[in-house]
Amino acid sequence: MSDKIIIFDTTLRDGEQSPGFSMNLQEKLEFAFQLKRLGVDVIEAGFPISSPGDFESVKAIAQQVDGPQICGLARAMDKDIDRCWEAVQHSKNPRIHTFIATSPIHVEKKLKKTQQEVREIAVNAVKRAKQYTDNVEFSTEDAARTGRDYICEVVEAVIDAGATTVNIPDTVGYSNPWEYGALIEYIFEKVPNVGQAIISVHCHNDLGLAVANSLAAARMGARQIECTINGIGERAGNASLEEVVMNIKTRRNFFPFHTDVNTEQIYPASRLLTRFTGISVQPNKAIVGANAFAHEAGIHQDGVLKERTTYEIMSPQSVGRSGNSMVLGKHSGRHAFVSRMKELGFALDDAALEKAFAAFKNLADLKKIIFDEDLLVIVDEQSRASDYARYNLEDIFIRIGQDKKPSASIRLRVDGDILEGSGTGDGALDAAFSVIKNLTNMEDAVLVDYHVGAVTRGTDALASVNITISAGGREAIGRGADTDVIRASIKAFINAINHCCFENGQVKPTEV
Ligand code: KIV
Ligand code: ZN
């Protein structure tokens, strides 16, 4: 058996489908390019039949991201499989991933079928997918709560039908390493044709054991692990890619296998996801949390200064972190800026680097210390200011007072023209958003979600705002950052309006 573990990343499918983690097409594409740099083997790019947006993003990733296999999810239904193929066929290396639940509770209560019927549906789904591609994955949803012998029956039948990967999910995060490892071992013992397919695992984290269960399964012969960056996913999330990969790398003697992941791209991938979703990982999160490599206790600091390995089992550099959280300031030069950008994993061309450096200098005038988080926001802001932005903010004037109705005057640049307007509202943002809606002819836009966070600490910190608006029956996300929270909110609102225009086909995206 090969000692390579196939890393199947499902951040853009299982991760993105969980509430609060949505990304737009451009962001998904950019994230898929980062997954390529990270060296994952398979990118599950989405669930094409679930929405036109999901279909378009799977198709765009399949068309543009070469290297990893590009996979789409499909229920065990003809229409799902056909739609999935329509999207993934554009990849040089496409995969169809089809699934049906096998546990008694799902079979009886959700599907209202017999086990025999479910097995037939599974076999037919694999055969249908096989008409399109040789690369077919089948998942027995809720496998961890399915009887072992029935699982083996289904696994054998779908392999006979042509499945090249068979996934055994712990859909509800119910299992533990001993039980789950034993299930995988049992499948290897009892399924006669098991050698003709890769056995894969997909663990949810409801009891906090997703990574442990995945690793236990790999020790029993599973050779594909499905996981997500930052462990995002349904409910408590999926197995975290960074934890799976770094366990394998750090404990080679215990886990006698390897992955092809370029671990120095782990931190950039984690940061990119945080930027796109606006949701940070907890500070003590293994590998990518703010404190994961911080030594606070004096005795630990003393030990690390004498010999790093006294308290560090991995180096921060091995996962793409610099090891120092405070890096640049007003007096830092271009050279320090460029090398820090490289360390953070940004491959900017000269023009983009020049713009980012100018933005850094402006920010350094407002803020004493520039943290890595600030640099990530600067790059993000630059990419938002790229030429697919139809509306650009020229100026804002806001008035608020104790007894006055808040008012806003806004100036926007659009296609070489200047649009100006003023209005009042219940608050400064209400006034500003109404003016912008009026100027952009987007009166039907409704604010659905609004989150504001401080990028770092201190009253001079950058504010980062994430907004979701709904307009013309579609939702669009917008983000903005600024040292002023009102400006950050207005930038985010305009960004969301620009995304609506982009999705309505009014403007063309720039190349990623
Ligand atoms: O958790 C699960 O069972 C899934 C399947 C669709 C693989 O996400
Ligand atoms: Zn799942």
Question: How would you describe this protein?
Answer:
The radius of gyration is 25 Å and the shape is globular. The chain has an 8-stranded parallel β-barrel with strand order 1-2-3-4-5-6-7-8, surrounded by 6 helices. Strands 11-12-13 form a 3-stranded antiparallel sheet. A 3-stranded antiparallel sheet has the order 14-15-16. α3 packs across α4 (78-88), α7 packs across α8 and α14 (350-366) packs across α15 (372-384). α8 (177-190) links the parallel β6 and β7 (198-203). It folds into 3 domains: 6-277, Alpha-Beta Barrel (TIM Barrel), CATH 3.20.20.70; 334-384; 391-503, Alpha-isopropylmalate synthase LeuA, regulatory domain (Double Stranded RNA Binding Domain). The chain has helices spanning 11-15, 25-38, 52-64, 78-88, 104-110, 115-130, 148-161, 177-190, 210-219, 241-250, 266-277, 298-306, 334-343, 350-366, 372-384, 428-439, 485-503, and strands at residues 6-9, 42-46, 69-75, 94-101, 136-141, 165-170, 198-203, 224-227, 326-329, 369-371, 391-399, 407-414, 417-424, 446-454, 463-471, 474-482. The longest helix has 19 residues, at 485-503. By secondary structure, the protein is of the alpha/beta class. Mean pLDDT is 91; it is low at 507-512.
Summarize the structure.
The protein has 512 residues and is of the alpha/beta class.
* CATH-defined fold name of the largest domain: TIM Barrel
Unreliable stretches (pLDDT < 50, length at least 5) are 507-512
CATH architecture group name of the largest domain: Alpha-Beta Barrel
| Radius of gyration, CA atoms, in whole angstroms | 25 Å
Largest sheet: 8 strands, parallel, barrel
User: What's the CATH H-level superfamily name of the largest domain?
Assistant: Aldolase class I
Shape summary: globular
Listed once per kind, the bound small molecules are: 3-methyl-2-oxobutanoic acid, zinc ion
Record field, number of beta strands: 16
Count of DSSP-assigned helices: 17
Q: Roughly how much helix do the residues carry, as a percent range?
A: 40-55%
